[in-house]
User: Fold this.
Amino acid sequence: MIKRQGFWLIIGLCLALIWGCATPTQTTVNSFASAEQYLRNNLLPKINVAQSPIPDQVAWRYSIDGIQEPLPDIQQFPLYAAQPSNNSRVVYLEIFSSSEKANVQKQNERWLVEVAEAFNQQRKTLNSGQVIQVGIRKIPSGTAVQLLAAGNVQPAGYSPSNDLWVKILSSKGVKPIYITPRLVPNVGGFVVQERVYQELAASGEVNFDKLLNAIASGKLAVGYPNPYSSSTALNLLYSIFWRAAGHQEDRQPLTTADLESPQVKSVFQSFQEQVLITTTTTLDLQEIFIRDQDKLQAFPLEYQNYQQLQKVPGFEKTVFIPFGIPHNNPLVGFSWNTPQQQEALQKFAEFATSPAMKQLAQQQGFQEIDYLSSSNLPPTPVGEVLTTAQSFWKRQKDAGRTVYLMAVIDTSGSMEGKPLAEVQEGLRIASKEINPGNYLGLISYSDQPREILTLAPFDEMQHKRLLAAIDNLRADGGTAMYDGMMVALGKLLEYKKANPNGLFYLLVLTDGQTNQGFALKQVEDVLKYSGIRVYPIAYGNVNQQELAEIAALRESTVKTGTPENVQELLKGLFQTNL
Assistant:
């Protein structure tokens, strides 16, 4: 009897062991429902989460009015060709330039720098005998406007991608003086998959109007970059609003009153419903377009860049559809310039538009295409209309859908000091970019995840809670990144079940290798089938390959963060997503 009982006891133990080992591996995650179930039943019960919410009586003492966004340091934007000189026999010109003609890292994007170098070699002089020397500072057009409007910088010249930025600058009280209306020709347009283009061409000519109608009717999904920083995206917004207001008939510029009309709002909402993603940079869209062509069929780009991209695998079978105002790359001066600087700018402009420099521009992709000579181009509006259009975009970009974002922040020991302090300041600044009613939550992780801000609608009180939670971040311990991500994912999926039409994002910042808790292989399928887009920020010595795999699961890219750029990076991500 005892032997028989021992036999069955051994059999029972063996079965229990087999069952315990086999059950987890037999669970298949291949849908949203199975991902949610596996997360609830198999992952979250194994994670020890610390609950550290900030009491409202503490959060209430925080002020949201005192958040000051520091202006970027001009020295972080490189200066090429001639450097400043104290020599009284030299008239020095510093010109702010958009990146497509001042990026020395790419042979086809350094035209203005090469022009300046050739000009400087000739040592041209003014009537006074002074030698003219020119330096080119590569700086985004929108950032240049921000610095110029604040009065922090006084370059001799400014050459943005298009005249929209000149109009915005003028509306902010800085009156530019045109030196030449165009240095080189360029234009924005949509890069469209050839297959999609051919489908549209079956019913006639494909132009911007036809493409917009196809987008609004759901025939293709598009993405575009941040219109607060991208010249092409700002031009795209203006073109959409201008047509929605019916001005292609009367050829009048867009007005602020147009932006209040139900027609403009309706057209823009139809367009936004088909927008797959809004990115912080055009480079993000290029990467996603090559990787996810079944999801992203078109995105805006300048024609000069497009010609080079056609040589890249993944871009061979594409078509360019131009839109909007020309990207004339004007050159303007300012009232603070001396007469000698104004004269020197004129001489530089004459040199830059000479036949030899025009030929160099053509070699780098600045081409005079037929679209630029069309009589149907939109007129350029005043700057106040453009800034109102940017604000309109920010308010209406979600097309009536609620955004839910969980921020997951690394607070391991290696984040101590400046790395964490800069992230905290970045989060404070980014908090000003959140639309009321969208949801935000915050989880930190080191040895274990800590929930310090519950996912909730953003209002004045939630804003104060966020600021208090940011102050409560402390660096210590290991790196349980995937544990933190799974806790955040669980919060998002609760709302996704209730609101499947919402927009759900998980932002994760990490400065090191995961060394505690779950690994990617254990959670990869849950992330894949959750339907949640993850924005990874690599903030140090991280596993880039793993972060790239996470980003590739759903139309995202890895952002490289440093203590020097993390404030602008977080602001851009919040601005485009929240």
User: Anything to note?
Assistant: Residues 1-26 have pLDDT under 50 and may be disordered. The chain has three domains: 28-61+401-577, 74-185+328-368, 187-326. Residues 147 and 153 are 6 Å apart (CA to CA). The first strand starts at residue 50 and ends at 51.
